[in-house]
From TrEMBL:
Protein name, UniProt field: Phosphoenolpyruvate carboxykinase [GTP]
Cofactor: Mn(2+)
Organism: Kutzneria viridogrisea
Superkingdom classification of source: Bacteria
Keyword Lyase among record annotations: yes
Reactions accelerated catalytically: oxaloacetate + GTP = phosphoenolpyruvate + GDP + CO2
GO MF entry, a single one: phosphoenolpyruvate carboxykinase (GTP) activity
Species lineage: Bacteria, Bacillati, Actinomycetota, Actinomycetes, Pseudonocardiales
PANTHER family per record: PHOSPHOENOLPYRUVATE CARBOXYKINASE, PHOSPHOENOLPYRUVATE CARBOXYKINASE [GTP]-RELATED
Keyword Repeat: no
Amino acid sequence: MTTAPIPGLDRAPTTHRRLLAWVREVAELTTPEQVVWCDGSQGEWDRLTTRLVEAGTLVRLTAKPNSFWCASDPADVARVEERTFICSRERADAGPTNNWMDPVDMKIIMTEQFRGAMRGRTMYVVPFCMGPLGAEDPKLGVEITDSAYVAVSMRVMTRMGSQALAAFLDDEGTERDFVPCLHSVGAPLAPGQQDVPWPCDNTKYISHFPEERMIWSYGSGYGGNSLLGKKCYSLRIASVMAREEGWLAEHMLILKLTSPQQKVHYIAAAFPSACGKTNLAMLEPTIEGWKVETLGDDIAWMRFGEDSRLYAVNPEFGFFGVAPGTDWHTNPNAMRTVERGNTLFTNVALTDDGDIWWEGMGEPPAHLTSWKKQDWTPASGEPAAHPNSRYCTPITQCPITAPEFDDPNGVPISAILFGGRRADTVPLITESRGWEHGVFLGATLSSETTAAAVGKVGVVRRDPMAMLPFIGYHAGDYLQHWITMGKHSDADKLPKIFHVNWFRRGEEGRFLWPGFGENSRILKWAIERIEGTASAVATPIGYVPTTAALDLTGLDTPIEDVRATLKVDEAQWRAELPLIEEWFDTIGDKLPATLREELDALTERLA
Ligand code: SAT
Ligand code: MN
Protein backbone atom coordinates (compact mmCIF):
# COMPACT_ATOMS: atom_id res chain seq x y z
CA MET A 1 0.00 0.00 0.00
CA THR A 2 1.36 3.42 -0.84
CA THR A 3 0.23 6.36 1.21
CA ALA A 4 0.32 10.02 0.26
CA PRO A 5 3.35 11.87 1.63
CA ILE A 6 2.67 13.79 4.83
CA PRO A 7 3.14 17.54 4.23
CA GLY A 8 6.07 18.98 6.14
CA LEU A 9 7.70 15.66 6.94
CA ASP A 10 10.49 16.31 4.46
CA ARG A 11 11.02 19.91 5.54
CA ALA A 12 13.38 18.81 8.31
CA PRO A 13 15.90 21.50 9.30
CA THR A 14 18.48 18.86 10.30
CA THR A 15 20.55 16.02 8.88
CA HIS A 16 20.53 14.10 12.18
CA ARG A 17 19.74 10.60 10.88
CA ARG A 18 18.36 9.08 14.06
CA LEU A 19 16.06 12.06 14.54
CA LEU A 20 14.87 11.97 10.93
CA ALA A 21 14.18 8.25 11.10
CA TRP A 22 12.26 8.55 14.36
CA VAL A 23 10.13 11.48 13.18
CA ARG A 24 9.22 9.55 10.01
CA GLU A 25 8.38 6.42 11.99
CA VAL A 26 6.11 8.37 14.37
CA ALA A 27 4.41 10.24 11.51
CA GLU A 28 3.68 6.97 9.73
CA LEU A 29 2.22 5.49 12.91
CA THR A 30 0.17 8.46 14.05
CA THR A 31 -0.83 9.76 10.55
CA PRO A 32 -1.08 13.52 11.24
CA GLU A 33 -2.44 15.95 8.67
CA GLN A 34 0.91 17.73 8.52
CA VAL A 35 4.28 17.93 10.28
CA VAL A 36 5.71 21.18 11.63
CA TRP A 37 9.31 21.47 12.82
CA CYS A 38 9.31 24.07 15.59
CA ASP A 39 11.98 26.76 15.42
CA GLY A 40 11.05 28.57 18.63
CA SER A 41 10.66 31.96 16.93
CA GLN A 42 8.31 34.74 17.98
CA GLY A 43 6.53 34.33 14.64
CA GLU A 44 5.86 30.69 15.44
CA TRP A 45 4.53 31.59 18.91
CA ASP A 46 2.23 34.20 17.34
CA ARG A 47 0.96 31.70 14.73
CA LEU A 48 0.30 28.94 17.25
CA THR A 49 -1.32 31.12 19.91
CA THR A 50 -3.55 32.68 17.22
CA ARG A 51 -4.58 29.22 16.09
CA LEU A 52 -5.23 28.21 19.72
CA VAL A 53 -7.42 31.28 20.21
CA GLU A 54 -9.39 30.39 17.06
CA ALA A 55 -9.80 26.84 18.34
CA GLY A 56 -11.19 28.11 21.65
CA THR A 57 -8.31 26.63 23.65
CA LEU A 58 -6.87 30.03 24.62
CA VAL A 59 -8.42 33.38 25.37
CA ARG A 60 -6.14 36.35 24.81
CA LEU A 61 -5.94 38.54 27.92
CA THR A 62 -6.38 42.26 27.42
CA ALA A 63 -4.84 43.16 30.78
CA LYS A 64 -1.43 41.51 30.23
CA PRO A 65 0.71 41.62 27.10
CA ASN A 66 0.96 38.48 24.98
CA SER A 67 -0.75 36.37 27.65
CA PHE A 68 -3.52 33.81 27.53
CA TRP A 69 -6.16 32.12 29.66
CA CYS A 70 -6.82 28.45 29.18
CA ALA A 71 -9.32 26.07 30.76
CA SER A 72 -8.56 22.38 30.50
CA ASP A 73 -11.02 19.53 30.31
CA PRO A 74 -12.23 19.27 33.95
CA ALA A 75 -10.95 15.68 34.03
CA ASP A 76 -7.39 16.61 32.99
CA VAL A 77 -6.07 18.92 35.69
CA ALA A 78 -3.12 17.20 37.41
CA ARG A 79 -0.43 14.55 37.20
CA VAL A 80 -1.85 11.02 37.04
CA GLU A 81 0.47 8.97 39.26
CA GLU A 82 -1.72 5.86 38.91
CA ARG A 83 -1.17 5.97 35.15
CA THR A 84 2.57 6.71 35.33
CA PHE A 85 4.82 3.75 34.54
CA ILE A 86 8.51 2.92 34.76
CA CYS A 87 8.98 0.27 32.06
CA SER A 88 12.38 -1.13 32.99
CA ARG A 89 13.21 -4.55 31.54
CA GLU A 90 13.19 -6.07 35.03
CA ARG A 91 10.29 -5.34 37.35
CA ALA A 92 12.71 -5.26 40.28
CA ASP A 93 14.51 -2.24 38.77
CA ALA A 94 11.37 -0.09 39.01
CA GLY A 95 11.13 -0.91 42.70
CA PRO A 96 8.15 -0.93 45.03
CA THR A 97 7.23 2.76 44.65
CA ASN A 98 6.62 2.84 40.89
CA ASN A 99 4.00 1.27 38.66
CA TRP A 100 5.78 -1.14 36.36
CA MET A 101 4.96 -2.71 33.07
CA ASP A 102 7.15 -4.81 30.80
CA PRO A 103 8.53 -2.50 28.09
CA VAL A 104 7.53 -4.84 25.28
CA ASP A 105 3.97 -5.15 26.58
CA MET A 106 3.71 -1.41 27.12
CA LYS A 107 4.96 -0.69 23.62
CA ILE A 108 2.43 -3.10 22.13
CA ILE A 109 -0.42 -1.43 24.04
CA MET A 110 0.70 2.12 23.39
CA THR A 111 1.56 1.54 19.74
CA GLU A 112 -2.10 0.68 19.22
CA GLN A 113 -3.12 3.82 21.14
CA PHE A 114 -0.80 5.95 18.99
CA ARG A 115 -1.85 4.32 15.71
CA GLY A 116 -3.74 7.03 13.81
CA ALA A 117 -3.92 9.09 17.02
CA MET A 118 -2.88 12.34 15.27
CA ARG A 119 -5.35 12.03 12.40
CA GLY A 120 -6.68 15.46 11.43
CA ARG A 121 -4.09 17.20 13.62
CA THR A 122 -0.71 18.85 13.18
CA MET A 123 2.30 16.97 14.50
CA TYR A 124 4.80 19.36 16.06
CA VAL A 125 8.46 18.37 16.35
CA VAL A 126 10.02 20.26 19.24
CA PRO A 127 13.80 19.92 19.70
CA PHE A 128 14.85 21.05 23.18
CA CYS A 129 17.80 21.16 25.54
CA MET A 130 17.47 20.75 29.31
CA GLY A 131 20.05 23.00 30.96
CA PRO A 132 22.22 25.74 29.47
CA LEU A 133 22.91 25.39 25.75
CA GLY A 134 26.61 25.91 26.32
CA ALA A 135 27.00 22.74 28.40
CA GLU A 136 29.83 20.41 27.48
CA ASP A 137 27.42 17.46 27.39
CA PRO A 138 24.04 19.08 26.62
CA LYS A 139 21.04 16.99 27.65
CA LEU A 140 18.92 16.98 24.51
CA GLY A 141 15.43 15.82 23.75
CA VAL A 142 12.80 16.02 21.06
CA GLU A 143 9.13 16.12 21.90
CA ILE A 144 6.74 15.10 19.17
CA THR A 145 3.26 16.30 20.11
CA ASP A 146 -0.10 16.87 18.45
CA SER A 147 -0.89 19.68 20.89
CA ALA A 148 -0.11 23.28 19.96
CA TYR A 149 -0.65 24.14 23.65
CA VAL A 150 2.22 21.82 24.51
CA ALA A 151 4.40 23.27 21.74
CA VAL A 152 3.96 26.85 23.00
CA SER A 153 4.37 25.80 26.64
CA MET A 154 7.64 24.06 25.73
CA ARG A 155 8.88 27.38 24.36
CA VAL A 156 8.42 28.91 27.81
CA MET A 157 9.69 25.98 29.86
CA THR A 158 12.74 24.86 27.84
CA ARG A 159 15.47 26.09 25.57
CA MET A 160 13.94 24.86 22.33
CA GLY A 161 13.72 25.23 18.57
CA SER A 162 16.60 26.14 16.26
CA GLN A 163 18.99 27.06 19.08
CA ALA A 164 18.53 23.60 20.61
CA LEU A 165 18.64 21.79 17.28
CA ALA A 166 22.03 23.35 16.58
CA ALA A 167 23.42 21.36 19.52
CA PHE A 168 22.30 18.04 17.99
CA LEU A 169 25.59 17.96 16.08
CA ASP A 170 28.78 18.54 18.06
CA ASP A 171 31.73 20.67 16.90
CA GLU A 172 33.02 17.78 14.78
CA GLY A 173 29.60 17.26 13.20
CA THR A 174 28.99 14.03 15.12
CA GLU A 175 25.38 13.29 15.96
CA ARG A 176 24.57 13.64 19.63
CA ASP A 177 22.12 11.43 21.49
CA PHE A 178 18.73 12.75 22.47
CA VAL A 179 15.74 11.51 24.46
CA PRO A 180 12.77 10.82 22.18
CA CYS A 181 9.57 12.08 23.88
CA LEU A 182 6.36 11.11 22.12
CA HIS A 183 3.13 12.80 23.17
CA SER A 184 -0.41 12.64 21.86
CA VAL A 185 -3.59 13.95 23.43
CA GLY A 186 -5.22 10.84 21.99
CA ALA A 187 -8.09 12.54 20.17
CA PRO A 188 -7.91 11.94 16.40
CA LEU A 189 -10.33 13.92 14.26
CA ALA A 190 -12.46 12.33 11.55
CA PRO A 191 -12.80 14.37 8.34
CA GLY A 192 -15.03 17.35 9.07
CA GLN A 193 -15.22 16.59 12.80
CA GLN A 194 -15.35 19.70 15.01
CA ASP A 195 -12.49 19.82 17.53
CA VAL A 196 -13.02 20.55 21.23
CA PRO A 197 -11.04 23.30 23.05
CA TRP A 198 -9.08 20.79 25.19
CA PRO A 199 -8.77 17.43 23.44
CA CYS A 200 -7.67 14.50 25.61
CA ASP A 201 -8.58 10.86 26.17
CA ASN A 202 -10.05 9.05 29.19
CA THR A 203 -7.30 6.46 28.84
CA LYS A 204 -3.95 7.87 29.90
CA TYR A 205 -0.43 6.45 29.94
CA ILE A 206 2.70 8.29 31.06
CA SER A 207 5.42 5.73 30.29
CA HIS A 208 9.16 5.83 30.75
CA PHE A 209 11.65 3.41 29.22
CA PRO A 210 14.75 4.00 31.35
CA GLU A 211 17.16 1.68 29.53
CA GLU A 212 16.26 3.22 26.17
CA ARG A 213 15.97 6.73 27.63
CA MET A 214 12.61 7.22 25.99
CA ILE A 215 9.23 8.68 27.04
CA TRP A 216 5.75 7.96 25.66
CA SER A 217 2.80 9.96 26.96
CA TYR A 218 -0.77 9.45 25.79
CA GLY A 219 -4.15 10.93 26.59
CA SER A 220 -3.42 14.03 28.73
CA GLY A 221 -2.63 17.64 27.94
CA TYR A 222 -1.89 18.70 31.55
CA GLY A 223 1.64 20.09 32.07
CA GLY A 224 3.14 17.44 34.31
CA ASN A 225 1.86 14.74 31.95
CA SER A 226 2.56 16.46 28.65
CA LEU A 227 5.54 18.85 28.93
CA LEU A 228 7.87 15.89 28.75
CA GLY A 229 11.09 17.84 29.37
CA LYS A 230 9.92 18.49 32.91
CA LYS A 231 9.13 15.64 35.35
CA CYS A 232 9.40 12.84 32.76
CA TYR A 233 12.84 13.76 31.41
CA SER A 234 14.49 16.04 33.97
CA LEU A 235 13.53 13.85 36.94
CA ARG A 236 12.48 10.30 36.00
CA ILE A 237 14.84 9.67 33.07
CA ALA A 238 17.54 12.04 34.36
CA SER A 239 17.60 10.30 37.76
CA VAL A 240 18.55 7.09 35.91
CA MET A 241 21.26 8.91 33.93
CA ALA A 242 22.46 10.61 37.11
CA ARG A 243 22.86 7.35 38.98
CA GLU A 244 24.95 5.90 36.14
CA GLU A 245 27.01 9.03 35.63
CA GLY A 246 27.49 9.97 39.29
CA TRP A 247 25.29 13.04 39.75
CA LEU A 248 21.89 13.91 41.21
CA ALA A 249 18.61 14.88 39.47
CA GLU A 250 16.38 16.35 42.18
CA HIS A 251 13.00 17.99 42.78
CA MET A 252 14.61 21.15 44.15
CA LEU A 253 14.53 24.90 43.81
CA ILE A 254 17.84 26.78 43.70
CA LEU A 255 18.23 30.17 45.37
CA LYS A 256 21.05 32.61 45.99
CA LEU A 257 21.26 34.24 49.40
CA THR A 258 23.44 37.29 49.96
CA SER A 259 24.13 38.52 53.48
CA PRO A 260 24.48 42.18 54.50
CA GLN A 261 28.25 41.55 54.39
CA GLN A 262 27.84 40.54 50.70
CA LYS A 263 28.65 36.92 51.42
CA VAL A 264 26.94 34.63 48.89
CA HIS A 265 25.50 31.18 49.53
CA TYR A 266 23.45 29.01 47.21
CA ILE A 267 20.73 26.83 48.68
CA ALA A 268 18.83 23.93 47.09
CA ALA A 269 15.53 22.88 48.62
CA ALA A 270 13.24 19.93 47.97
CA PHE A 271 9.52 20.09 48.73
CA PRO A 272 6.69 18.01 47.28
CA SER A 273 4.57 19.59 44.55
CA ALA A 274 2.45 22.55 45.67
CA CYS A 275 4.29 23.05 48.99
CA GLY A 276 5.80 26.46 48.24
CA LYS A 277 9.02 25.86 46.28
CA THR A 278 8.28 28.75 43.95
CA ASN A 279 7.49 31.07 46.88
CA LEU A 280 10.71 30.16 48.67
CA ALA A 281 12.77 30.51 45.47
CA MET A 282 11.46 34.08 44.98
CA LEU A 283 11.30 35.13 48.62
CA GLU A 284 11.62 38.76 49.69
CA PRO A 285 13.54 38.70 52.98
CA THR A 286 11.94 40.53 55.89
CA ILE A 287 15.31 40.87 57.63
CA GLU A 288 17.43 43.92 57.03
CA GLY A 289 20.13 43.75 54.38
CA TRP A 290 19.56 40.18 53.18
CA LYS A 291 18.87 39.45 49.54
CA VAL A 292 17.41 36.45 47.71
CA GLU A 293 17.78 35.77 44.00
CA THR A 294 16.26 32.92 42.04
CA LEU A 295 17.94 30.27 39.89
CA GLY A 296 15.15 27.71 39.68
CA ASP A 297 11.87 26.74 41.34
CA ASP A 298 11.41 23.03 40.66
CA ILE A 299 14.35 20.96 39.45
CA ALA A 300 18.08 20.90 40.20
CA TRP A 301 20.77 18.79 38.56
CA MET A 302 23.78 18.58 40.84
CA ARG A 303 27.28 17.28 40.22
CA PHE A 304 30.63 17.59 41.94
CA GLY A 305 32.99 20.25 40.60
CA GLU A 306 36.76 20.00 40.44
CA ASP A 307 36.90 21.59 43.88
CA SER A 308 34.75 18.70 45.25
CA ARG A 309 31.83 20.99 45.95
CA LEU A 310 28.35 20.11 44.69
CA TYR A 311 27.25 22.39 41.80
CA ALA A 312 23.62 22.83 40.79
CA VAL A 313 22.03 23.71 37.46
CA ASN A 314 18.35 24.35 36.74
CA PRO A 315 17.51 22.36 33.59
CA GLU A 316 14.38 24.43 32.94
CA PHE A 317 13.83 27.84 31.35
CA GLY A 318 10.48 28.84 32.86
CA PHE A 319 8.25 28.49 35.89
CA PHE A 320 5.15 26.29 35.97
CA GLY A 321 3.90 27.61 39.29
CA VAL A 322 0.77 26.95 41.34
CA ALA A 323 -1.43 30.03 40.98
CA PRO A 324 -3.81 29.99 43.99
CA GLY A 325 -2.25 31.60 47.03
CA THR A 326 0.18 33.62 44.89
CA ASP A 327 -0.27 37.37 45.30
CA TRP A 328 1.49 40.67 45.98
CA HIS A 329 1.96 39.71 49.66
CA THR A 330 2.97 36.04 49.41
CA ASN A 331 5.09 36.21 46.26
CA PRO A 332 5.44 39.69 44.74
CA ASN A 333 8.24 38.50 42.45
CA ALA A 334 6.01 35.88 40.85
CA MET A 335 3.37 38.57 40.34
CA ARG A 336 5.96 40.87 38.72
CA THR A 337 7.10 38.00 36.50
CA VAL A 338 3.62 37.28 35.12
CA GLU A 339 2.72 41.00 34.88
CA ARG A 340 5.40 41.26 32.17
CA GLY A 341 3.26 39.04 29.97
CA ASN A 342 4.23 36.15 27.69
CA THR A 343 2.44 33.90 30.15
CA LEU A 344 -0.06 31.05 29.84
CA PHE A 345 -2.54 30.69 32.69
CA THR A 346 -4.32 27.35 32.91
CA ASN A 347 -7.42 26.70 35.04
CA VAL A 348 -7.42 30.03 36.86
CA ALA A 349 -10.51 32.28 36.65
CA LEU A 350 -11.03 34.92 33.93
CA THR A 351 -12.26 38.41 34.80
CA ASP A 352 -14.77 40.31 32.70
CA ASP A 353 -12.09 42.83 31.72
CA GLY A 354 -9.71 40.23 30.30
CA ASP A 355 -7.47 39.61 33.32
CA ILE A 356 -6.96 36.58 35.56
CA TRP A 357 -8.00 35.95 39.15
CA TRP A 358 -7.50 33.14 41.66
CA GLU A 359 -8.14 32.42 45.32
CA GLY A 360 -5.64 34.24 47.51
CA MET A 361 -5.66 37.41 45.36
CA GLY A 362 -7.89 39.27 47.80
CA GLU A 363 -11.52 40.26 47.26
CA PRO A 364 -12.93 38.53 44.19
CA PRO A 365 -14.68 40.62 41.55
CA ALA A 366 -18.49 40.41 41.51
CA HIS A 367 -18.38 38.20 38.42
CA LEU A 368 -15.85 35.80 36.94
CA THR A 369 -15.65 32.98 34.45
CA SER A 370 -14.51 30.01 36.52
CA TRP A 371 -11.94 27.43 35.46
CA LYS A 372 -14.96 25.28 34.56
CA LYS A 373 -15.98 28.04 32.09
CA GLN A 374 -19.08 28.79 34.16
CA ASP A 375 -20.41 32.07 35.49
CA TRP A 376 -19.04 32.54 38.96
CA THR A 377 -19.93 34.96 41.76
CA PRO A 378 -18.66 35.11 45.35
CA ALA A 379 -21.90 33.26 46.28
CA SER A 380 -21.04 30.29 44.05
CA GLY A 381 -19.67 28.31 46.97
CA GLU A 382 -16.76 26.73 45.10
CA PRO A 383 -13.33 27.98 44.07
CA ALA A 384 -13.19 30.01 40.87
CA ALA A 385 -9.69 28.68 40.11
CA HIS A 386 -8.74 25.02 40.33
CA PRO A 387 -6.40 24.41 43.33
CA ASN A 388 -3.77 23.08 40.88
CA SER A 389 -4.19 25.91 38.39
CA ARG A 390 -0.87 27.14 37.00
CA TYR A 391 1.00 30.01 35.41
CA CYS A 392 3.64 29.17 32.84
CA THR A 393 6.07 32.06 32.54
CA PRO A 394 9.66 32.71 31.39
CA ILE A 395 12.43 32.61 34.04
CA THR A 396 14.12 35.54 32.28
CA GLN A 397 11.17 37.80 33.22
CA CYS A 398 11.59 37.29 36.94
CA PRO A 399 13.07 40.51 38.35
CA ILE A 400 15.25 38.57 40.81
CA THR A 401 16.59 35.85 38.52
CA ALA A 402 20.32 35.54 39.19
CA PRO A 403 22.26 35.82 35.91
CA GLU A 404 24.29 32.68 36.77
CA PHE A 405 21.13 30.58 36.30
CA ASP A 406 22.38 30.15 32.72
CA ASP A 407 25.94 29.14 33.70
CA PRO A 408 26.62 25.61 32.42
CA ASN A 409 28.92 25.04 35.40
CA GLY A 410 26.13 25.72 37.87
CA VAL A 411 26.50 27.18 41.34
CA PRO A 412 28.10 25.63 44.45
CA ILE A 413 25.49 24.54 46.98
CA SER A 414 26.07 25.32 50.68
CA ALA A 415 22.85 23.88 52.08
CA ILE A 416 20.17 21.42 51.08
CA LEU A 417 16.72 21.72 52.68
CA PHE A 418 14.20 18.90 52.73
CA GLY A 419 10.71 20.14 53.54
CA GLY A 420 7.25 18.69 53.87
CA ARG A 421 3.79 19.82 54.89
CA ARG A 422 3.19 18.44 58.39
CA ALA A 423 0.65 19.73 60.90
CA ASP A 424 2.56 18.28 63.85
CA THR A 425 5.78 16.51 64.96
CA VAL A 426 8.28 18.14 62.56
CA PRO A 427 9.91 21.37 63.87
CA LEU A 428 10.41 24.52 61.83
CA ILE A 429 14.05 23.58 61.13
CA THR A 430 16.39 20.77 62.13
CA GLU A 431 20.04 20.51 61.13
CA SER A 432 21.26 17.00 60.39
CA ARG A 433 24.14 15.43 62.30
CA GLY A 434 26.06 14.91 59.05
CA TRP A 435 25.56 13.73 55.44
CA GLU A 436 24.25 10.25 56.24
CA HIS A 437 21.86 11.53 58.89
CA GLY A 438 20.84 14.18 56.35
CA VAL A 439 20.10 11.48 53.79
CA PHE A 440 18.03 9.77 56.51
CA LEU A 441 16.05 13.01 56.99
CA GLY A 442 15.43 13.17 53.24
CA ALA A 443 14.64 9.45 53.00
CA THR A 444 11.98 9.70 55.72
CA LEU A 445 10.51 13.01 54.55
CA SER A 446 6.73 13.00 54.81
CA SER A 447 4.07 15.38 53.62
CA GLU A 448 0.33 15.81 53.29
CA THR A 449 -0.77 15.22 49.69
CA THR A 450 -1.82 18.22 47.56
CA ALA A 451 -3.92 18.90 44.46
CA ALA A 452 -0.86 18.62 42.20
CA ALA A 453 -1.63 14.94 41.67
CA VAL A 454 -4.98 13.25 41.16
CA GLY A 455 -6.14 11.61 44.40
CA LYS A 456 -7.05 12.42 47.98
CA VAL A 457 -5.64 15.69 49.39
CA GLY A 458 -4.23 16.03 52.93
CA VAL A 459 -3.12 12.44 53.54
CA VAL A 460 0.36 12.08 55.11
CA ARG A 461 2.62 9.97 52.93
CA ARG A 462 6.38 9.33 52.90
CA ASP A 463 7.96 11.28 50.07
CA PRO A 464 11.72 10.62 50.00
CA MET A 465 13.56 13.80 48.96
CA ALA A 466 10.12 14.94 47.62
CA MET A 467 10.90 12.55 44.77
CA LEU A 468 8.39 9.74 45.40
CA PRO A 469 6.52 10.28 42.09
CA PHE A 470 9.71 11.11 40.19
CA ILE A 471 12.37 8.47 40.99
CA GLY A 472 12.90 6.62 37.71
CA TYR A 473 14.24 3.43 39.32
CA HIS A 474 14.27 1.48 42.59
CA ALA A 475 13.84 3.79 45.61
CA GLY A 476 16.33 1.69 47.61
CA ASP A 477 18.99 2.13 44.89
CA TYR A 478 18.16 5.83 44.78
CA LEU A 479 18.77 6.25 48.52
CA GLN A 480 22.01 4.24 48.22
CA HIS A 481 23.07 6.60 45.42
CA TRP A 482 22.60 9.55 47.81
CA ILE A 483 24.77 7.82 50.45
CA THR A 484 27.43 7.01 47.86
CA MET A 485 27.49 10.61 46.59
CA GLY A 486 28.44 11.73 50.10
CA LYS A 487 31.57 9.59 49.92
CA HIS A 488 32.85 11.53 46.88
CA SER A 489 33.74 14.55 48.93
CA ASP A 490 35.00 15.70 52.34
CA ALA A 491 32.45 16.52 55.02
CA ASP A 492 33.43 20.20 55.00
CA LYS A 493 32.84 20.51 51.26
CA LEU A 494 29.47 18.74 51.23
CA PRO A 495 26.33 20.83 51.61
CA LYS A 496 24.87 20.78 55.10
CA ILE A 497 21.45 19.12 55.14
CA PHE A 498 18.41 20.54 56.98
CA HIS A 499 14.82 19.42 57.50
CA VAL A 500 12.19 22.19 57.46
CA ASN A 501 8.45 22.42 58.02
CA TRP A 502 6.67 25.75 57.50
CA PHE A 503 3.26 24.12 58.05
CA ARG A 504 3.12 23.14 61.73
CA ARG A 505 -0.20 24.02 63.35
CA GLY A 506 -1.40 25.06 66.78
CA GLU A 507 -4.87 25.01 68.33
CA GLU A 508 -7.79 25.42 65.95
CA GLY A 509 -5.51 24.37 63.16
CA ARG A 510 -3.88 27.78 62.68
CA PHE A 511 -0.34 27.92 61.28
CA LEU A 512 2.29 28.63 63.96
CA TRP A 513 4.77 30.20 61.57
CA PRO A 514 3.91 32.97 59.06
CA GLY A 515 6.17 31.56 56.33
CA PHE A 516 6.83 33.36 53.01
CA GLY A 517 9.25 36.32 53.48
CA GLU A 518 9.71 35.42 57.16
CA ASN A 519 11.40 32.19 56.06
CA SER A 520 14.47 34.37 55.43
CA ARG A 521 15.04 34.17 59.21
CA ILE A 522 15.33 30.41 58.89
CA LEU A 523 17.66 30.60 55.89
CA LYS A 524 19.82 33.04 57.87
CA TRP A 525 20.14 30.58 60.75
CA ALA A 526 21.08 27.77 58.35
CA ILE A 527 23.82 29.92 56.81
CA GLU A 528 25.10 30.95 60.23
CA ARG A 529 25.29 27.28 61.21
CA ILE A 530 27.42 26.67 58.11
CA GLU A 531 29.64 29.59 59.01
CA GLY A 532 29.78 28.42 62.62
CA THR A 533 28.27 31.55 64.15
CA ALA A 534 24.81 30.40 65.32
CA SER A 535 23.94 28.23 68.28
CA ALA A 536 21.73 25.16 68.35
CA VAL A 537 20.47 22.57 70.78
CA ALA A 538 21.38 18.93 70.20
CA THR A 539 18.14 16.94 70.32
CA PRO A 540 17.43 13.28 69.50
CA ILE A 541 16.33 14.29 65.98
CA GLY A 542 19.21 16.69 65.21
CA TYR A 543 20.23 20.29 65.94
CA VAL A 544 17.38 22.72 66.50
CA PRO A 545 17.60 26.47 67.14
CA THR A 546 16.28 28.07 70.30
CA THR A 547 14.18 31.20 69.81
CA ALA A 548 17.28 33.16 70.91
CA ALA A 549 19.37 31.74 68.06
CA LEU A 550 16.92 33.01 65.44
CA ASP A 551 16.79 36.60 64.24
CA LEU A 552 13.23 37.50 65.25
CA THR A 553 13.64 41.30 65.01
CA GLY A 554 10.38 42.87 63.92
CA LEU A 555 8.49 39.58 63.73
CA ASP A 556 4.81 39.89 64.63
CA THR A 557 4.31 36.24 65.55
CA PRO A 558 3.94 35.59 69.32
CA ILE A 559 7.11 34.11 70.79
CA GLU A 560 5.09 31.18 72.23
CA ASP A 561 4.13 30.21 68.68
CA VAL A 562 7.76 30.30 67.54
CA ARG A 563 8.68 28.18 70.55
CA ALA A 564 5.88 25.74 69.74
CA THR A 565 6.98 25.41 66.13
CA LEU A 566 10.57 24.68 67.23
CA LYS A 567 9.52 22.14 69.85
CA VAL A 568 10.85 18.60 69.60
CA ASP A 569 7.98 16.59 71.04
CA GLU A 570 9.60 13.27 71.86
CA ALA A 571 6.27 11.47 72.31
CA GLN A 572 5.21 12.52 68.80
CA TRP A 573 8.57 11.40 67.46
CA ARG A 574 8.27 8.01 69.18
CA ALA A 575 4.91 7.66 67.42
CA GLU A 576 6.67 8.44 64.13
CA LEU A 577 9.15 5.55 64.49
CA PRO A 578 6.79 2.70 63.51
CA LEU A 579 5.69 4.76 60.48
CA ILE A 580 9.30 5.13 59.37
CA GLU A 581 9.82 1.41 60.04
CA GLU A 582 6.80 0.61 57.87
CA TRP A 583 8.12 2.84 55.08
CA PHE A 584 11.55 1.21 55.24
CA ASP A 585 9.86 -2.20 55.05
CA THR A 586 8.09 -1.03 51.89
CA ILE A 587 11.46 -0.31 50.30
CA GLY A 588 12.55 -3.82 51.22
CA ASP A 589 15.97 -5.49 50.83
CA LYS A 590 17.49 -2.65 48.86
CA LEU A 591 17.14 -0.19 51.73
CA PRO A 592 20.72 0.93 52.48
CA ALA A 593 21.96 -0.58 55.75
CA THR A 594 23.16 2.89 56.74
CA LEU A 595 19.56 4.11 56.88
CA ARG A 596 18.48 1.20 59.10
CA GLU A 597 21.37 2.08 61.39
CA GLU A 598 20.24 5.71 61.42
CA LEU A 599 16.73 4.59 62.40
CA ASP A 600 18.11 2.35 65.17
CA ALA A 601 20.23 5.22 66.47
CA LEU A 602 17.24 7.59 66.43
CA THR A 603 15.14 5.02 68.27
CA GLU A 604 17.84 4.75 70.90
CA ARG A 605 18.17 8.52 71.28
CA LEU A 606 14.40 8.75 71.80
CA ALA A 607 14.24 5.84 74.31
O1 SAT B 1 2.42 19.09 37.35
S1 SAT B 1 3.86 19.30 37.36
O2 SAT B 1 4.51 18.00 37.51
O3 SAT B 1 4.30 19.92 36.16
C1 SAT B 1 4.27 20.26 38.70
C2 SAT B 1 4.33 19.46 39.92
O4 SAT B 1 3.39 18.69 40.21
O5 SAT B 1 5.34 19.56 40.65
MN1 MN C 1 7.40 20.08 41.09
